[in-house]
Amino acid sequence: MFRYFLVFLILSVGFLSCAPPSYTPKPKGYFRIDTPQHSYQVFDKADFPYSFQYPVYANIQRDTSFFGQKPENPYWININFPTIGGMVYISYKEISQKQPLAKLLEDAHQMSYFHTKKADYIEDFVFHNPNGVSGVCYNVGGDAASAYQFLATDSVKHYMRGALYFDVTPNADSLRPLNEFLKRDIQQMLYTLKWK
């Protein structure tokens, strides 16, 4: 009797183990991100030394803390994209003997190229807008913390630096659609930037 039970058990296990799997693992993927239509409004506060166009789906906040300290001047702002989870941090400085343009440009270059540890490449290109503003944009490829940075100046009095960050661990593949989407908004901002 024990022998028949053992044969039955072995055959049952054999038949059950040959059944096709009921679950097939799926490869990892990313969530689909729906982005709004590009549409702009003007940032032109009387007490600020600059104005520009920014997206209607963003809001501007005055930057009140820079690494736990008060910012250098009241013109530092953050452009927040709450539905996307991104933020463009903008700092403004007035060119002076204490802060000459050459030092400000070198600082911006070093901050942008700090990302070479994680970046696959860094492309920089010069821009000029119709309002007499010129500058450099840095397109940082790979898993760097900031994929897009820029500086803008009139070379005499005004200097602005900005960087785009997301509140997630950097992953070039998953953030590529958002980086490309916000790159267009940043370019619109720089094209319409005016000094007062």
Provide a compact summary of the structure.
The chain is an alpha+beta fold. It has helices at 2-17, 101-113, 172-192, and strands at residues 40-43, 50-55, 59-62, 77-81, 86-94, 119-128, 134-142, 148-153, 158-166, 194-195. The termini are far apart.
3D architecture notes:
The protein is α+β, with helices and mostly antiparallel strands and 196 residues long. 26% of the residues lie in helices and 33% in strands. The protein has a single domain, classed as Protein Transport Mog1p, Chain A (3-Layer(aba) Sandwich). It has helices at 2-17, 101-113, 172-192, and strands spanning 40-43, 50-55, 59-62, 77-81, 86-94, 119-128, 134-142, 148-153, 158-166, 194-195.
Please tag this protein with its features:
Protein Transport Mog1p, Chain A; alpha+beta; 10 strands; 3-stranded antiparallel β-sheet; 7-stranded antiparallel β-sheet; elongated
Largest sheet, spatial ordering of strands: 3-4-5-9-8-7-6
What is the fold named in CATH at topology level? Protein Transport Mog1p, Chain A
At CATH's second level, what is the architecture?
A: 3-Layer(aba) Sandwich
- List low-confidence stretches: none
Q: In the CATH hierarchy, what is the class?
A: Alpha Beta
Distance between the termini: 99 Å
Overall structural class, as computed from helix and strand content, comes to: alpha+beta
- Whole-number radius of gyration? 26 Å
Q: Helix count, per DSSP? A: 3
The overall pLDDT average reads: 87
**Percent of residues in helical segments?**
25-40%
Proportion of residues in β-strands? 25-35%
**Number of strand segments:** 10
Q: Main sheet, how many strands, which sense, barrel?
A: 7 strands, antiparallel
Order of helices and strands: HEEEEEHEEEEHE
Q: Report the principal-axis shape.
A: elongated
- Count the domains: 1
